[in-house]
Amino acid sequence: MTPSPDPGSDRKRLGADELIAVFVALTSIGGIFFWSISQKDGGMNVPFFQEPTASSPPVATPSAPATTDATPPINGSVDQPVTVAPSLIDPSASRTTPAPQSTPFVAVVPQAPATPSPAPSAAPTTPVAQPKQFTDVPANFWAGAPIAALSAKGILDGFPDGTFRPNKPITRAEFAEIVRRAFNKSASREALKFNDLKPDYWAVPAINQATQTQFMSGFPNGSFQPNRQIPRLQVLLALATGLNLQPKQPAAQVLNQYQDAAEIPAYAADKTAAAIEAGLVLDEDNTKRLSPDKLATRAEVATLVHKALGQ
């Protein structure tokens, strides 16, 4: 009978190199075990999982990148460099490295995605004021256009009954109010004091502005006479003086084309001629007369002021 093969004979015997490797591994494990139990706290405190304590300084690690958050840091001081004990990873090295700075916790609030701004649209146009409709100013009235233009700008108003009363003479106080609304000029002299105006009179602000801008003046006796009706000549002088109009030709040459030029006082010749050259004339009756002493009506003042606004 043939003897059966020994089962253990197929096993591969360990060579000398393998035996040495096993010996080195066991020696390393024993060394680690011996080192761990020899520590102060004792026990199996493996250094790779040990949290830093007060007695063992932490290994310097790079600080987190600086954020651009606007919140100021809680601790604003900068720590000085400290000497770190030999590293557990490289026991032979002892180096000086900056201590990690305290990084404050900042709650980052996610920003909503920026929405694109809508394309700018055309600037809104200011609605044009509509002229008022007056029951006594027909469509074909000779001063209809100036009245409509000034009423749309709020320079002239009508009466509560819906009329304009274009043929009604205008007073000096009313004319001062029209000047205040129509012309935006800076004061060129102090306000004049008049002995016939009470401080609470309704037209005092308008009269003060009209006199400060030299559109109007008072009388030699120190009065203003606000309820006095104003003649055509005074309207021409007021507009020419307030707008600082000057004649380009000799006054006599300009005035002589009118049949009543002799009625113009000498003191008013230059300003009247300047007003005529600027187109401040009333030609509704197609005559060659200035009628300087005729009381100016609301329609006539509307026409002259409308023309003066073009200067």
Automatic annotation (TrEMBL):
<keyword id="KW-0472">Membrane</keyword>
<feature type="domain" description="SLH">
    <location>
        <begin position="255"/>
        <end position="311"/>
    </location>
</feature>
<feature type="domain" description="SLH">
    <location>
        <begin position="194"/>
        <end position="253"/>
    </location>
</feature>
<protein>
    <submittedName>
        <fullName>S-layer homology domain-containing protein</fullName>
    </submittedName>
</protein>
<feature type="domain" description="SLH">
    <location>
        <begin position="130"/>
        <end position="193"/>
    </location>
</feature>
<keyword id="KW-1133">Transmembrane helix</keyword>
<keyword id="KW-0812">Transmembrane</keyword>
<dbReference type="InterPro" id="IPR001119">
    <property type="entry name" value="SLH_dom"/>
</dbReference>
<feature type="transmembrane region" description="Helical">
    <location>
        <begin position="20"/>
        <end position="37"/>
    </location>
</feature>
<feature type="region of interest" description="Disordered">
    <location>
        <begin position="49"/>
        <end position="131"/>
    </location>
</feature>
<feature type="compositionally biased region" description="Low complexity">
    <location>
        <begin position="103"/>
        <end position="112"/>
    </location>
</feature>
<dbReference type="Pfam" id="PF00395">
    <property type="entry name" value="SLH"/>
</dbReference>
<dbReference type="InterPro" id="IPR051465">
    <property type="entry name" value="Cell_Envelope_Struct_Comp"/>
</dbReference>
<feature type="compositionally biased region" description="Polar residues">
    <location>
        <begin position="93"/>
        <end position="102"/>
    </location>
</feature>
<feature type="compositionally biased region" description="Low complexity">
    <location>
        <begin position="52"/>
        <end position="73"/>
    </location>
</feature>
<feature type="compositionally biased region" description="Low complexity">
    <location>
        <begin position="122"/>
        <end position="131"/>
    </location>
</feature>
